[in-house]
Structures are given as C-alpha cells and as structure tokens.
Amino acid sequence: MFTGIIEELGEVLAWDRAGDSGRLTIKAPLAVSDAKHGDSISVDGVCLTVVDQGPDWFTADVMAVSIAMSTLGERKVGDRVDIERAAALGDRLGGHIVQGHIDGTATLLTVTPGDAWRVLRFTLDPEHAPLVVRKGSIAVNGVSLTVSDAGDDWFEVSLIPETLAATTLGTLTPGDRVNIETDIVARHVQRLIHFGAGALESPSGAVGAFAAGSVGIYGHGGSADSPATGGNA
C-alpha cells in the first residue's frame, strides 16, 4: 500500500523488453536506501517488486498486463518517473490509500495556468466516471490528488507549486498520457451496489449492520450518535 506522496523522482536507466513483458531498471537512491529483494515500490503509480538492486538503483519485472494498462511501456532511458516506497505501519497517511493497481490511463487535455498553480484537465473513461467525484481522491502517476471538478468524460486537478516541482506532473503537456487509480473505497461501494443489492436491502446484511452501527468506523457497538469509548465522529 502507498499514500500517494511522491518521495523522489527516479530516472530510467534501462528498459529491457522481452516479448510482451520486460525488466525496468531505475535510479532511485532514496527508494533503495532501505529496500530489499521483494519489496514493493510505486513507479508512476504502478506497484513493482524489487528483483535486483545496487547502491542507487533497483530492477523490477514488468508483466504484460502492466505494460498494456499503463504508460510504463512508453518510458525510455533518461525519463523521469514518480517514486514512492510502500507505506510502513504507523506512517502518516498524508495522501489517501493508493494500492498501485491502476485502472488504466488518461490523456491530458488542457493546462490552465494560475498565478503559481495549474489546473490540469484529463480524459475520463465512462467506466471510471462514476468513481471520480468532485472533492474526492484520485491518484495520477501515483500522486494523491483532490478532484477539483469532474464531468462525464473528464476530470480536473489543481496542482500547487510543490506538486509541480516534486513530481512529473509539472512537465506534462496536452496529449501526454498518465496512469490513474480511482479511490479503492469507491470501487468497493460500486461493486457492492452491483452485486450486493440484497445486502443493501436486508437489515441483517453487511451494509445493514453498518447502518445500524454494529460495525464501522465508530468502533464495535458504536454509532454516529453514540461513538464507542475512544472513538470520535
């Protein structure tokens, strides 16, 4: 799991393709400073596994499905990529829960500059549109962002100077593609509504139990009106 707070900009050192898969080597001194074989590292929002490493670089295998669904196949030697190490237990959740399991890609439509910030508008596939809401969260190239506005086939994010400087998003131009991951909570709710209509209607179902306050964020037996000891609304 990741938080969507980019820790460093990595550099592609090698991209060895073998059929429909490949092996990607990235220079990322911070990421490998405490990494070991088998660790997860987010590269432009895609969760990859360390299979080899050196003093300031790591190598990861990239499966065919990851290449097909993401922009990793378009990367070339010298390109910059957004890097984040997996979150550790006890870390602050500065962004939102990001899995590194992207939904696909989006294309940058427009860049609207402000005094020190920019508004970026991206395309949005119809299947993802219900999961992207104004003021909700979305990960773009692994960067946790707040959706400033959204339509049926587009969404916008507003980038502050820090985000523009610390991530690859500051170098994007119209026509560029990015990896997107919608909010995991929204995805679970969508699936529950589609497949669990009975649970929604039945007081004994999981959703009914949540509504009754027997389980949920307020603690065992708590509710919004009467939170469990130590909890809060």
UniProtKB/TrEMBL annotation:
It holds the Pfam family Lum_binding. PROSITE patterns: LUMAZINE_BIND. Lumazine-binding repeats lie at residues 1-96, 97-193. Pathway: Cofactor biosynthesis; riboflavin biosynthesis; riboflavin from 2-hydroxy-3-oxobutyl phosphate and 5-amino-6-(D-ribitylamino)uracil: step 2/2. It is an enzyme of class 2 (transferase). Its EC number is 2.5.1.9. The keyword Transmembrane helix does not apply. The keyword Repeat applies. One of its GO terms (molecular function) is riboflavin synthase activity. It catalyses: 2 6,7-dimethyl-8-(1-D-ribityl)lumazine + H(+) = 5-amino-6-(D-ribitylamino)uracil + riboflavin. One of its GO terms (biological process) is riboflavin biosynthetic process. Catalyzes the dismutation of two molecules of 6,7-dimethyl-8-ribityllumazine, resulting in the formation of riboflavin and 5-amino-6-(D-ribitylamino)uracil. This is Riboflavin synthase. It comes from Pseudolysinimonas yzui.
